[in-house]
Amino acid sequence: MPRNSSRISPNLDTLGIYPVPVAAHLLQEAPATVHRWAFGYRRRGQKYSSAINTELPVLGGTHALTFLELVELVFVQALLQSGVSWTKVREASRVAAHLLKDEPHPFAAKRWFADAAAVYLKLGVDHDEDILVEVAGYAQVAMEPVLHPYLTQLDFDVKGVAQRWFPMGFATPVVLDPRRSFGMPITATAGVPTETIARLHSAGDSISTIAISYDIDEAEVEAALEYEESLAPAA
User: Is 4 domain-assigned?
Assistant: First the structure.
């Protein structure tokens, strides 16, 4: 889907910035896969659209995503994991985004994670879009198990738009917050990048040493290490 630079916030440090390889690492997908989901692709001379709208310009030849776009890809990934084909996901996303054109990032809204089937069905029936009705029928059974866990990870604002992601659940002090550290994974209280903690531990620093160095609880260090270990390199 085309980018609309007129919507870009002047405060990039509050959007979260994730170059495609970084987003791929966080989603545990191949970079080429994430690029295809977010920016579309060409095959045999034909251009295929993306599943979401993106707003950041290409900088130095690098494509990047905002926090809300990353959350939207979490939604897309969940649909694919539920068994919906990429073709149907892409088309249903394109149609739904067009119908919800007043919402720049509709799939970062709580209602999609809470009851995607109902949202798809209402849009499909109201606007006579068969693809949305078809996906809604599948969503009612297959999507709930993969979407509902995110309700214990994604923190939504009063308007129902995602504002923080606790990838290991609210009880674990690791968070992605676009207003802090450009949205990269950090410890929730002290804001220490989990990658930094993992690097220090790999270099030989003990958990207690790291905790003392950053004046944080050992539990936050352990949570950071657990999270980083969970991020297996994408194939």
Answer: no
> What is the extent of the structural domain holding 209?
166-235
Helix spans in the chain (H): 20-27, 31-39, 67-81, 86-99, 110-127, 130-142, 144-147, 194-202, 207-214, 218-230
The residues, any chain, with a CB within 8 Å of residue 12's CB and separated by 6 or more, are none
Rg (CA), the chain: 19
The answer to whether the CB of 183 falls within 8 A of the CB of 67 is yes
Residue range 117-152, pLDDT digits in tens: 899 989 999 999 998 988 888 766 788 889 999 999
Q: How many domains does the chain have?
A: 1
Q: How far apart are CA 59 and CA 3, in angstroms?
A: 14
CA terminus-to-terminus distance, the chain: 26
Q: Which two tokens stand for residue 34?
A: 């994430």
Of the candidates 108, 233, 228, 214, the residue with the CA atom closest to the CA atom of residue 172: 228
Kindly list the averaged pLDDT for each block of 10 residues, start to end, along the chain of length 235: 45 85 96 96 87 90 95 95 90 90 92 92 92 82 87 97 97 97 96 97 97 96 97 62
Which CATH number do you get for residue 199?
A: 1.10.10
pLDDT tens-digit map of 199-231: 999 999 999 999 999 999 999 999 999 999 999
Question: Which residue do the tokens 């999609």 mark?
Answer: 112
User: How far, in Å, CA of 235 to CA of 232, rounded?
Assistant: 9
CA–CA separation, 63 and 196 (whole Å) = 24
pTM of the prediction? 0.91
